[in-house]
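Input (structure):
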């Protein structure tokens, strides 16, 4: 860029050179995706202590409100105080992180070595993976498959607007791919050594879209990007596993006791004696009048790592209970296990929402309530105050002739 423009930019922003610590030139001119008339993206880091606190989006502290100054018909300028810029680095905000690893030619001014500060204080491989997955998640959402050539609203748009929209989506989809690549480099080398490593993918995307392109070719671009995204995510999953849970797991095995239930129960009791398997009775309230269903299951605890422990539990169950008809094996992880997602955003980005949910369990002893009057009152109270998707009782027998009832309320918190 023309270095003589820097003073003009500072004058427009009423900034003196003394109050500016760092100036970074990033964006398409660095990635090799620019055109001769492309705007240039500038980050200015100031020594000011008066910049307002960052206002982050509600899902987690990453994307935030910020002002972009469009100057001299060719510069898009963002200004951050030193304190706010460090917050962005701490949060693995990739637009900020990429700046500190820029080649020297794109560091217009660098009084503070944020690269070393980042590596010493804020480098976080899980945070980097979370950021890259979220960038890709956000960029994919920009594509709206409901907008098609048969949509009257779509047809009413000026052709120039549709083309502009497609270019915007194309650009952001590539941003997602590029950030996945940056994080791959950062995790493996603690650096971004090649800003143009995936530029060829952008060229492939443009070829698939065509000029000017249409909704059909845009759909092909999105499918191509999803495939490339899956490749990068798979590589990052290998580098930073986020779905391997280590610790204690409870296995609940449900049996078919519809035929000769009394005989099956007695047989199950004998099969569970002097083993790690505890026999449970489930009373299911179907909310259909007074109709209740009963199921019989066992509970056992196992130590290991998910997902490999799944096959281990399955084999043990079928071997020990080979004389019984097993309906289902449910595996529950302890919340204290290692690598349990700590944030809602991790559930959204790293986990299959179709196989994970939370349960709220209430354990009540009926030792002093042999007639069950207290439990009936408690169940009625919960039913009138909550709106669960499923409600059941687990009646657990111990061998001291006491009964414990566990009320399970599955709110099915799919994230």
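Output (sequence):
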């Amino acid at each position: 860029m023309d270095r003589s423009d820097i003073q003009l930019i500072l004058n427009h922003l009423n900034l003196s050179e003394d109050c500016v610590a760092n100036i970074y030139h990033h964006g398409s001119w660095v990635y090799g995706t620019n055109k001769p008339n492309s705007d240039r993206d500038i980050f200015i880091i100031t020594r000011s202590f008066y910049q307002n606190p960052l206002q982050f989006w509600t899902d987690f502290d990453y994307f935030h409100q910020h002002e972009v100054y469009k100057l001299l018909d060719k510069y898009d300028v963002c200004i951050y105080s030193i304190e706010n810029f460090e917050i962005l680095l701490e949060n693995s905000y990739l637009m900020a992180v990429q700046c500190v690893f820029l080649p020297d030619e794109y560091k217009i001014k660098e009084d503070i070595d944020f690269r070393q500060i980042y590596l010493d204080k804020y480098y976080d491989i899980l945070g980097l993976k979370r950021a890259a997955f979220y960038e890709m998640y956000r960029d994919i959402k920009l594509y709206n498959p409901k907008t098609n050539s048969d949509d009257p609203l779509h047809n009413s748009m000026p052709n120039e607007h549709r083309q502009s929209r497609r270019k915007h989506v194309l650009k952001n989809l590539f941003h997602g791919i590029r950030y996945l690549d940056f994080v791959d480099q950062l995790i493996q080398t603690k650096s971004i050594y090649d800003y143009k490593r995936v530029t060829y993918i952008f060229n492939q995307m443009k070829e698939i879209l065509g000029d000017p392109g249409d909704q059909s070719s845009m759909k092909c671009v999105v499918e191509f990007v999803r495939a490339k995204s899956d490749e990068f995510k798979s590589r990052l999953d290998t580098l930073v596993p986020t779905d391997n849970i280590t610790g204690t797991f409870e296995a609940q095995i449900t049996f078919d006791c519809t035929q000769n239930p009394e005989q099956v129960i007695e047989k199950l009791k004998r099969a569970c004696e002097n083993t790690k398997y505890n026999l449970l009775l489930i009373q299911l309230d179907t909310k259909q009048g007074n109709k209740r269903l009963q199921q019989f299951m066992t509970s056992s605890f196992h130590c290991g790592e998910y997902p490999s422990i799944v096959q281990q539990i399955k084999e043990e169950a079928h071997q020990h209970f080979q004389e019984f008809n097993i309906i289902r094996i449910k595996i529950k992880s302890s919340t204290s296990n290692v690598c349990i997602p700590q944030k809602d955003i991790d559930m959204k980005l790293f986990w299959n929402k179709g196989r994970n949910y939370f349960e709220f369990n209430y354990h009540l002893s009926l030792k002093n309530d042999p007639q069950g009057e207290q439990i009936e009152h408690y169940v009625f109270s919960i039913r009138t105050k909550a709106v669960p998707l499923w409600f059941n009782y687990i009646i657990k027998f111990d061998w001291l002739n006491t009964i414990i009832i566990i009320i399970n309320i599955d709110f099915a918190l799919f994230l």
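Notes: Residues 148-155, 386-391, 397-415 have pLDDT under 50 and may be disordered. DSSP finds 14 helices and twelve strands in the chain.
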